[in-house]
Amino acid sequence: MPVWLSWAINKSSKGTSRCGRHSASPLAWSPSCLASLFFISVSNGGPVSMIWGWLTAGIFITLVCIAVSELASAAPTAGGLYYWTHRYASPRSRNLLSWIVGCEDFMSVARIAACVTIESNFTWAPTTAQLFGISTAVLVAQAFLACFATRIMARLQSFVIAVNFALILVVIISLPAATPKEFKNDARHALGNFENINGWPSGFAFLLKFPHTTLV
């Protein structure tokens, strides 16, 4: 989602909204996060979940991005998601919903710590103090970027998005070209083989692919 969301908002608001600080950073770590989450798709549906689950969720994510880009165009404010949530939500629930949107940002801290834990082969686990330190560092860095580097970030995110798509094309082209023929699967296997080895109901196993898709 960060790639499509940042592109949509950047086109509609010229990079003046919250996307300047929010969407560029996930692009930097998305390859490692995507790689760390592949085991979810492989064990919960296999090729069918990885391909058709990605496409299915991508359609709905695109609709969300189009809606968010309209909001950014109508109200291109810093901290846009908080403002939009509070402005358009019901008065009875707007405070709670704005708080939930704020907690979504904090989840990036958990994802950073999770990536480090996975890369260390689960030999490192963050303490409460370390999570607080990571959260503080992220907030301070975002505050500096939002205050002093808005124009730079608006230009930088367009460059990073282009690089991200280029890397995707490189993987799509180079991986099949470099894979020995005996290790390649045919199209029937890639597009229609459903493998559920985790024991979840097949429908639920297919849905487990959707959170993975939101990172793209």
From TrEMBL:
InterPro entries, alphabetically?
A: AA/rel_permease1 (IPR002293)
Q: Check the record and name the Pfam families matching this protein.
A: AA_permease_2 (PF13520)
Write down the membrane topology.
Answer: Multi-pass membrane protein
Q: Which GO terms describe its cellular component?
A: membrane
Q: Which UniProt keywords apply?
A: Membrane, Transmembrane, Transmembrane helix, Transport
Give start-end ranges for the coiled-coil region(s). Answer: none
The subcellular location is: Membrane
| Gene Ontology MF terms in the entry | transmembrane transporter activity
Has the keyword Transport been applied to this entry?
Answer: yes
Q: Which residues cross the membrane?
A: 51-84, 96-119, 131-152, 159-178
PANTHER family listed in its UniProt record: AMINO-ACID PERMEASE BAT1, GABA-SPECIFIC PERMEASE
Report the protein name in the record: APC amino acid permease
**What is the species of this protein?**
Mycena sanguinolenta
